[in-house]
Specification:
Helices cover 44% and strands 15% of the residues. It is an alpha/beta fold and 404 residues long. Strands 6, 7, 8, 9, 10 and 12 form a six-stranded mixed beta sheet that branches. Helix 2 links the parallel strand 1 (27-31) and strand 2.
């Protein structure tokens, strides 16, 4: 009962703040996630109908968020709400980040680690915790004679993938892995998420959480997994530069490939395209490091809400009220958990608002089994240009126009 009363009071407070600011205030959210654009648009509409506060959601094209933010932030009608990916992103935008330390957003966090701090100031708040690895079509895997449990390290992953590739005609497949599209809609899976693996293991070995320059201790392992992907895929390595994220998704949901490197955020796309929970599992990304049998999936966040500190005080108050409503109201929690499929770091998301997501369930199974989750270290990468250089090198190598 106390919990219900507390949530009700929080909702009343949010609505009161919003109503007070409605005459002169508005919210402009520059959304990072194209896959949740429709849900954010609908939630913004509901909030405006309830409070009278205009909420505009603009979604940046995949891979163009930073460029879009730089363009929009200088306009007279600038974003009042944007996001950064972690400490490196914060370094670029800290002067624009309002201190959220005294807001309900921070008080609702399940762990202070989800607050992005600069000194005592809270410059950003994580709003979704995500996990990625190698998504597997468990039914196709079983058809090939294997289960997820058979794959416990790089050696077994390689054995299974190469066997499936060798028997792809017999199994009615185009390849073991989906196409490794390297255009802007897909290359982040490899220049960022896959590149996290050698960085993670180097950080672990050296007992650090950041560095000015990696030593490259595990780059040979990076090569191993990249070779496995491109040589056992639905397309020839020379074709990856022409493939897109949509191509990779289609390979997977149409049953043309067994394995698909991606994350929990892809659950909705898989289900919407006709897959079922029973078909979906997830494996760690194994790269051949000693002891990786104890490795879990890659879990973390690069999604931190930031309120524009250069916006008007009225717009700042309206933006904070909107966010607090999103994480406490029934409509907001239902949208974020059940429609967007977010696993959130807020205490206000109870049993009624926990994402129904088979990929999140798979991640929880690894944690329950005592496996060590791989941290997200890619937010320490120096810049998007640095990542683009990695992506270009991966593409050139695959196409035979460059060395590893």
């Amino acid at each position: 009962m106390k919990k219900i009363i507390a949530l009700a009071l929080a909702l009343v407070l949010c609505l009161a703040l919003a109503t007070a600011a409605s005459a002169d205030a508005s919210v402009y959210y520059l959304n990072f996630k194209p896959e949740q654009d429709a849900q954010w648009q609908e939630l913004a509409k509901v909030y405006t109908e309830k409070t009278g506060v205009p909420v505009t959601v603009v979604t940046a094209a995949s891979g163009d968020y930073e460029t879009t933010l730089m363009s929009e932030i200088e306009k007279s009608e600038c974003p009042t709400l944007f996001q950064v990916n972690g400490p490196v992103g914060l370094a670029n935008w800290t002067d624009y980040c309002y201190d959220l330390a005294d807001t309900e957003l921070v008080k609702h966090l399940t762990n202070e680690a989800f607050a992005l701090k600069e000194g005592d100031a809270v410059k950003g708040v994580a709003y979704v915790i995500e996990t990625y690895g190698i998504i597997a079509n468990t039914k196709l895997l079983e058809k090939a004679g294997y289960t997820v449990a058979d794959i416990t390290n790089f050696e077994t992953l390689k054995k299974v993938a190469e066997d499936i590739q060798a028997r792809k005609a017999e199994l009615g497949l185009d390849g073991a892995f989906t196409s490794a599209g390297m255009d802007g809609s897909s290359d982040w899976r490899f220049k960022t998420h896959l590149a996290n693996m050698p960085i993670y293991y180097e950080y672990q070995a050296d007992g650090i959480g950041d560095t000015d320059a990696i030593k490259g201790t595990y780059l040979d392992n990076y090569k191993k997994i990249w070779d496995l992907y491109i040589n056992n895929a639905t397309c020839e390595p020379s074709m990856i530069g022409a493939k897109t994220g949509s191509d990779a998704l289609a390979d997977f949901v149409l049953g043309d490939a067994v394995f698909y490197q991606n994350g929990t955020w892809e659950y909705g796309n898989c289900i919407n395209e006709g897959m079922t929970d029973e078909q979906l599992g997830m494996l760690p990304i194994f790269i051949g490091v000693e002891g990786e049998e104890n490795q879990g999936l890659c879990t973390g966040s690069e999604n931190y809400w930031c309120v524009n500190g250069k916006a008007s005080a009225e717009d700042q108050a309206a933006t904070i009220a909107f966010l607090e409503w999103c994480i406490t109201s029934d409509a907001g929690r239902d949208a974020m958990a059940n429609k967007m499929g977010f696993l959130t770091p807020f205490k206000s998301f109870d049993d009624g608002y926990v994402a129904n997501n088979a990929l999140i369930a798979a991640a929880d199974e690894y944690i329950a089994a005592g496996k060590t989750s791989v941290s997200w270290n890619f937010p320490t990468m120096p810049s998007e240009n640095w990542k683009n250089g990695v992506g270009a090198a991966l593409t050139d190598y695959a196409q035979g126009t460059g060395e590893w």
